[in-house]
Amino acid sequence: VTTFAEALAALQPVDREAAASAAEHHTRLTKPRGSLGRIEDLGVRLAAIAGTSPPPLPAPAAVAVFAGDHGVHARGVSPWPQEVTAQMVANFAGGGAAINVLARAAGASVTVVDVGVAADLPPGLGVVDRKVRRGTADLAAAPAMTPAECERALDAGAAVAADLVATGARCLVTGDMGIANTTPSAALIAALTGRPVAEVTGRGTGVDDTTLALKVGVLEAALHRHGEGREPLDVLASLGGLEHAALVGFIVGGAAAGLPVVIDGVIAASALLVAARLSPDVADRCIAGHRSVEPGAAAVLADLGLAAVLDLDLRLGEGTGAVLALPLIESAALVLAEMATFDGAGVTVKEG
Amino acid sequence: VTTFAEALAALQPVDREAAASAAEHHTRLTKPRGSLGRIEDLGVRLAAIAGTSPPPLPAPAAVAVFAGDHGVHARGVSPWPQEVTAQMVANFAGGGAAINVLARAAGASVTVVDVGVAADLPPGLGVVDRKVRRGTADLAAAPAMTPAECERALDAGAAVAADLVATGARCLVTGDMGIANTTPSAALIAALTGRPVAEVTGRGTGVDDTTLALKVGVLEAALHRHGEGREPLDVLASLGGLEHAALVGFIVGGAAAGLPVVIDGVIAASALLVAARLSPDVADRCIAGHRSVEPGAAAVLADLGLAAVLDLDLRLGEGTGAVLALPLIESAALVLAEMATFDGAGVTVKEG
């Protein structure tokens, strides 16, 4: 099994020659130049990631949903009881959650991984047990986890990525579950971008004005406790969640294996930001599935120069927005692989 | 075979009770209220169109690509030779165009219909022959077609819709091919919205500044010749293309049959606008697949209050943007049909 450190060391820059070849091939296909817009950009990106043009079909895709709880929940940052994390894990296992429905529609598998649920899950659910601890500590009062715990979660994510690649996945999709997990996401984004907490904090699953103000206050306390100028993995252990750390490992693991990694909402975006601060080669290997309603997600996309495929006012998480983008990503590869050329189809190229 | 007039008379308002039932069901599903954003709106819309909640899966989908040529091409409004229309029809028949690749990926069929190509197509291509005439007249100098020709194209579109419904299609998708056809589209949109020509005219498949200025001048001449205050079908015959008229028939035919009709770019949008001026019940039964780069398409969406599913800088036509939206539309139906409820999954609802 690949560790996180091994995956990080194995990361390579994307292939600029394959990207140029894909861009050039697009000009030969029977359509006006650039007329498929962002689908063309996606095809070029897939070629750069795969190191070949046309890029291979990024399918089948595999979603990993990392679940964890958060000590900061006790501060009242979410209207949902903490027990909902475990209940939703059971719902994922039963196939009835949004991510299950949408992944089935997209032909993607769903693997649920417990990295930090604050409850004993019933046996036989089919959930991968990589539990590091039963929820994090309250990040407003103390580091959320120890460096050793953080490393275990990073390794769990990298191992899940390696397992999915070994069983045939050709595209990885980030998923998450953890009541209150938009709070550590905002903390990571504020700490790593330097933006004010209020600017990167959203309503999560739907908090009212009072709770939003409380959430911002808790986050400011957390950032104050944490201090400034620390290394990315110190920031992650201090302010992140166990599912965030696992997602960092998963993203780096998938990227190191040469697969496109499709990023969901603000939780995955905050994990990608940590990974991007560790390596310049990660963000180029990821695709932002959608632009979440959460302001922190948009801040990360802007910071890393990523364009989202979809913009549908989504704020559910679980990997849903990323899975919804899969057919478009697959179509981008198919256009390069299957469309006729002007020469081949006997179509006249435009004048001038 | 249903005529256009019969289809228009058969149009019904969408079912507000089914929509309300779908919206209420969304609140029982295991996700925060509204967290699937526009996917939830799409599900409600599908229920309203189908008249039942959960709505049936809008699949299989069927794309009809209506092809025609345009007398106005002789004015130099496009850099592409007119012969490319017939060449691209052959490319569709051979399965090598973008619409073929994207429809295969989405599990949709493609039917190509000649309603006005200015060439004799080789026999045996598998193209449906509904040719009304070999291209329209130059709309800047004379009515593009006679009322009788327009009616034949309208009937052709309605008949194709009826045929596709009869063979099992559960969702119709608008497609088009016709070199220079963004020019009549802009003419229809300017005439029916009252907006200035310059505001609704775009670069089509990629014209330069000089050609864009020429195109605006030709369109202003056409609008001047046409005059003001005419009935929608008079506007269509005077300024439209044969594929535009066929698309009006196709949209109305699909809507009358109770199927969702997915609208592609500016050509289909201009046809939808004609249909919407004929009946208040058409637009509610359509889904805007994407927001085209063409300004006229955005003008129609704004006029009719339609939100596009995708916004990917597409400007190809053929039905490509609409087909790319199909997996999202199908997912919207599946969410309502397949997701677990809070009660059923034993998940606690949020406090307050």
Description:
Two copies of one chain form a homodimer. With 352 residues, chain A is of the alpha/beta class. Chain A contains 15 helices and six strands. In chain A, strands 3-2-1-4-5-6 form a six-stranded parallel sheet, sandwiched between helices. In chain A, helix 12 links the parallel strand 5 (261-263) and strand 6 (286-288). The first copy, chain A, starts with a helix and ends in a 7-residue tail after the last helix. The mean pLDDT of chain A is 97. Chains A and B meet through helix 3, helix 4, helix 5 and helix 14 of A and helix 3, helix 4, helix 5 and helix 14 of B.
Strand neighbour order, sheet with most strands of chain A: 3-2-1-4-5-6
- Helix count from the secondary structure assignment of chain A: 15
Q: What percent of residues of chain A adopt helix (DSSP H or I)? A: 40-55%
Rg of Cα set of chain A: 20 Å
Helix/strand order of chain A: HHHEHHEEHEHHHHHEHEHHH
The chain-level mean pLDDT of chain A equals 97
User: Which structural class best describes the helix and strand composition of chain A?
Assistant: alpha/beta
Low-pLDDT segments of chain A: none
Largest interface: A-B, 62 and 62 residues
